[in-house]
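Chapter summary example.
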Amino acid sequence: MSQGKTVHFVRHCQTTWNDAVHNRNLTRCDEELKSEAYVDVPLTAFGEEQAMMIKQKILDLNAEVAITSPLKRTIETCIRTYGDRNVVATHHCAEIGDSICDIGTMKEDLVKTYPSIDFSFVPSTVWWYVNEKMKDRLTNPRKCFEWVLQNEDCALGETHCHLHGRIERFHEFLQNRNESNIVVFSHSVFLKQFLFKYFGRPSSQVIQNGEIISYCL
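The structure predicted for these 217 residues follows.
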């Protein structure tokens, strides 16, 4: 295990959810955002353009490995910038389980769609956040989607305590990697909390879509 590591943290590029919430001022309980089309939300056309704009910056990092959340918006950002070789997925750096867009895709389907990516660290069962008491019932994305719609606040409800448990596991995951130059593709809330906990970056500081932030671990 390398003692010194440079880790480059990248927030995924713009998604259809980002566009709806930030550009059109919709909330997660607006009827439009109750659509199954927002499950494991995709990049927008502009998000794809953003990926092309940062591609050379990512390549210039010369990272030995890319680590990505298993949510498709991070995977697609990774593939369009870093590529699909030497890419490892882990659910520990997925976004806080909050909205429909944070419901993921089952591992078996991800493996079929992205055969070059290493999903060995992702559980075969539901890997995104579901309430512990509901795990026996919420066994696939469709059931999770229907359950969220039945909730008054349309939220998955991951607590900050649970999130910070994942943050600690991800930090340990990074420490245990042998590589000394790593690029991580993750999400706004997760990165804000992770970077605050381990590097003191103010959690109120916005991380833009496609932004790259580098630290020595």
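To summarize the output: The radius of gyration is 16 Å.
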